[in-house]
Amino acid sequence: YPTHQPYRTGYHFQPAKHWINAFPAPMLYKGVYHLFYQYNPKGAKWGNIVWAHSTSTDMINWSPRGYGVYPSQRSDINGTWSGSATFLHNGVPAILYTGIDPDRNQVQNMAVPENPLDPYLTNWVKAHENPLMEPTQQNRINASSFRDPTTAWLGPDSTWRLLVGSKHDQKGLAVLYRSKDFVNWMKVDHPLHSTEGTGMWECPDFYPVLAGAGGTEVGLDTSVVGPNVKHVLKVSLDDTKHDHYTIGKYDPFVDVYTPDHDGLADQDLGMRYDYGKYYASKTFFDWGKNRRILLGWVNESSTEDDDVAKGWAGVHTIPRKIWLDKSGKQLVQWPIEEVEKLREKGVKKPCQELKPGSVHEVTGVTAEQADVEISFGKLDLSKAEKLDPSWTDPQALCTRKGASVRGALGPFGLLVLGSKCMQEYTAVFFRVFQGHDGKPVVLMCSDQSKSSRNDENDKASYGTFVDVNPALENLSLRTLIDHSIVESFGAHGKSVITARVYPLLAIDGAAHLYAFNNGTQSVKASRLSAWSMKKARIG
Ligand code: DQQ
Prior knowledge:
It is a single chain. The chain is mostly beta strands. It has two domains: 19-337, Glycosyl hydrolase domain, family 43 (Tachylectin-2, Chain A), CATH 2.115.10; 344-533, Jelly Rolls. 3% of the residues lie in helices and 45% in strands. A hairpin with a 5-residue loop joins strand 33 and strand 34 (440-447). The longest helix is centred in the middle third of the chain and has 7 residues, at 304-310. It is globular and about 70 Å long. The protein starts with 17 loop residues before the first strand and ends in a 6-residue tail after the last strand. 2,5-dideoxy-2,5-imino-D-mannitol is lined by residues 21-22, 38, 49, 81-82, 98, 147-148, 202-203, 280. Its main location: other. It catalyses: Hydrolysis of terminal non-reducing beta-D-fructofuranoside residues in beta-D-fructofuranosides.
């Protein structure tokens, strides 16, 4: 593989080479965090899937541990696909995962640690009862759409429950199973949830969140239920490659999950964790710090030929803490605090006015490997552009109104991975409109259209509306920049957009960072802090 690798990350996890996707069975065990990942040991395209394994004590620096689960028995001989870990009553984790059998059917298997005293969980032993769940004539399960078992949770009847992703025609399904002993699993007649027209549900995730008055960031173990608890159901839509979630009420006595919003629930795909490139995510409860952690996979936006040439594909986002917003209507995500240990040399700018049409370089940090926080002062909404009622699709709006299209209140934000003369840059910004009811509408965009002079890359723009009122509070943006990945958090993590970019000029120490305002109204950058980021150990 080429020695010149301008797109390899400095602090986002990726293995030394080859293809990765999805992070099954994350967990904290005996003080050690475990990261497994779907891995092709033979190349930079998907295939030959095994579980590679790395461990960490901070989820930022990782040590490779060989393979955790790999094809070795009849029920997984053609692949060991995604799955989850569950802590059993003895405190030892069991992994449930999808195996591809000799007939290429998808079946569910179990593996347990060979030595529970080993904090690194180096070797896994497969259950001789495998497969534990399989498609049969009676259960009418689609044998090529039956995968990715969730972490199991315990019901009030001391029985385990779990979900397996599936579909029936185009109806996405979260198939529900129950077991008393974790080995014998019975399919329940009704799925926990299903939605017409959504296609295959990969990597389902189902977990409780605390709905405290005023909001709380405390995470919950997967089996917790109670009056102050809501549940999140996330599914990864194979047809669109996006992770969608709903928040709702789960009744453990009848095993029914009801999403909160009324009306067209059946067609409503719910919200997204991330409005950029982000897929096959998974959460786990970190009992060490009482938080729920979200891990996600970000695929390349380059061509397959480019991936093969550079010898690798796929990176891991910085793990995010995830919790229920105080509105109770959406989740909030924030990079784990441990990433801040990588911050080194930093710059802090005092309150600065960004005049219409201005671009301000932020110097003094390594712009291709940085963490940036900027906050904009309260805005006078009487100056905002009116939102056309037909502009309901934020991604289409970001595509139509990119960073170079002048507005009134915005576009303002950051230009990252920019070249010296601005032939290349990725723009992450806000644009504020006045809605038809007079209320503010905040659009957040990540505009990749100028990110590289190489037009072979997918340079689609991404966007989302942000639930914040910038007349009443500052509008904040944090962006983690790492060579070819740009992770942006709007309004303290209410909206997240991740992008992959491949500049030709803004590499190898030649990347620049700017704050900009391309609106007709001045805005105040009330705070701007930026840090160079140290390299993490990510092998
Ligand atoms: N791909 C895996 C599946 C999962 C999907 C196979 C997510 O288990 O459904 O690598 O990328």
